[in-house]
Write a structure and sequence with these properties.
The structure is a single chain. It is globular, with a radius of gyration of 16 Å. It is an alpha/beta fold and about 210 residues long. The protein starts with 11 loop residues before the first strand and ends with a strand. Strands 5-4-3-6-7-9-8 form a seven-stranded mixed sheet, with helices on both faces. A two-stranded antiparallel ribbon has the order 1-2. It has one domain: Rossmann fold (3-Layer(aba) Sandwich), CATH 3.40.50. Helices cover about 30% and strands about 25% of the residues. Bound molecules: S-adenosylmethionine (SAM). S-adenosylmethionine binds next to helix 2.
């Protein structure tokens, strides 16, 4: 049975074909009584819409790919991939308090997303080896994360991940990561991008393709 009996309903919005909850939606207000995300995973961030727009304009997602979302938070990009490309998606986050929000939003869109609590620095090559694609939205927000993400990308490619796509509003640690990746990987693009839903939003997309594939 659908999670909501009828739409429209207050404090829900639609972007790129999926339904998402605003912070003052009645389900979110209930969840907040029990779960308190503490590393910025307290809402849907706009960089997720950059990823959705990028995927609509590219072949990346294909059909039924296995995708890991790094720092998934409430999982908007994961939900989009599951819904639009029938992808098998696992959302990874260090903060397991984000998962109840992701699960409610996934149910709202009638998709299933696996979740896994793990830190960027602790995800192993064996864990990466099960995935075709890694995605991340607004996950480069502290200086110390640049090195952590760079090592993660190298580890993931050694494990056989084919492509990594990271969206960002344009924070300094993201540009530092992009510079390091552009130096090391031939097949790497830093793209200015904008999303048009739920409203105009500009940012950046970093696409890095595994040189061994
Ligand atoms: C700015 S939020 C973005 C959430 C989501 N991607 C979005 O676009 O709405 C950053 C997310 O990264 C997670 N995070 C922060 N540090 C992390 C780490 N070291 N390992 C894994 N996840 C982390 C946070 O818990 C949070 O959910």
């Amino acid at each position: 049975m659908p999670l909501l009996q009828e739409l429209p309903e207050n404090n829900i919005f639609q972007a790129y074909g999926i339904l998402l909850l605003k912070n003052n939606h009645r389900f979110v207000r209930k969840l907040k009584k029990y779960y308190t995300p503490s590393i910025h995973g307290h809402k849907t961030w706009n960089s997720s819409f950059l990823l959705m727009d990028y995927f609509l304009h590219n072949e990346t997602l294909g059909h039924r790919k296995t995708i890991m979302e790094l720092g998934c938070g409430w999982g908007p990009a994961s939900i989009f991939c599951a819904q639009h490309a029938d992808a098998k998606v696992t959302g990874v986050d260090r903060d397991d308090e984000v998962f109840p929000y992701l699960e409610v939003q996934a149910a709202l869109n009638e998709v299933e997303i696996k979740t896994k609590q793990a830190s960027f620095e602790k995800i192993t090559k064996k864990q990466f080896s099960e995935f075709d694609i890694l995605i991340g939205a607004d996950i480069c927000f502290w200086d110390k994360l640049t090195k952590i993400h760079y090592n993660l990308i190298n580890r993931a490619f050694k494990a056989g991940v084919k492509e990594i796509i990271i969206a960002d509003p344009g924070r300094e640690p993201f540009y530092e990561l992009a510079e390091k990746c552009l130096d090391k990987y031939k097949d790497c693009d830093l793209l200015d991008w904008y999303a048009t839903e739920p409203e105009h939003f500009e940012g950046e997309i970093l696409v890095i393709r595994n040189p061994d594939y």
